Amino acid sequence: MKIVLITGISGSGKSVALRLLEDSGYTCVDNLPVKFLNEFINTVREEQLKQIAVAIDVRSPGDLATLPHVLTGLRSQGVEFKAIFLDASDHALMQRYSESRRRHPLTDRLRKEGKSASLLECIHAERELLAPMRDQEHVIDTSELTPGQLRAWMRDLIQAGRADVVLTFQSFAYKRGVPADSDLVFDVRCLPNPHYDPELKPLTGRDQAVAQWLMQFNNVNQMLDDITGFIRRWLPLYLQDTRNYLTVAIGCTGGQHRSVYVVEKLAERFADHSPLLIRHRNLPAIEQP
């Protein structure tokens, strides 16, 4: 039986993620109270359902503070599941709420408690409530993602096996901010930049012309060797940890050439690791692998 738990900040894309899971054949339950999670899983076991997805967030009645303890208990019972926490920056969330004109689910609760309930204060209150979950599970920062990208990333995650740490290499643009879901971050802005070559500017680090241009520089190859050596040195300790995911983020100025090239080369060097995922946060969807 495959079980996926979706949680995270309101407005971060949980509905998009659940729809993808439903389209992938999962039986989906939204807004399940924490106290019913054990009972629900026991029920689906009895009914021999094969693929289950559950969304739990601040809309769910009950004490969210108990959720990490409940999940620990399930794991100790041998229940295998993927828990995915969707997040986004304050700016992205406020923009999405402005576009949708929806109220934050914590608005009425904060007002009943005699607290100020502006949108930003609701977002901060929600972050505090969900912090224990964010610290324990795999995080996807959706701030810069289109719905199509989020669906693709979710599809990759649910298809990845559970026998090992899911190793993800992700490129990003520093001018758009460092992804909040990064575990390790490497800055490659010091490397030669193909952006200034008129013929290479419209291309990406996945194009052979850009790759050939970059690989002629010794410091590019040395950067790749150093990052590879660091990851190979410390990956065994991550494998011994209780985590299920390790995201290595590679950043350059625009997220188009250098970081993309380095991610592609690192993926080649770690091709023997399974599961292995590749993400390019700031490439157009058509350029995604």
Order of helices and strands: EHEHEHEHHHEHEEHHEHE
Report the mean per-residue pLDDT as an integer.
Answer: 88
Tally the beta strands.
Answer: 9
The CATH architecture name of the largest domain reads 3-Layer(aba) Sandwich
Strand order across the largest sheet: 2-3-1-4-5
What structural category do the secondary elements indicate?
alpha/beta
Terminal Cα span: 29 Å
Rounded to an integer in angstroms, the radius of gyration calculated over CA atoms is: 20 Å
Largest sheet: 5 strands, parallel
The helix tally amounts to 10
Weakly predicted, low-confidence segments: none
Shape: globular
CATH fold type of the largest domain: Rossmann fold
Quickly count the domains.
2
- Share of β-strand residues: 15-25%
CATH superfamily of the largest domain: P-loop containing nucleotide triphosphate hydrolases
Helix fraction by DSSP (H/I, runs of at least 4): 40-55%
CATH class of the largest domain: Alpha Beta
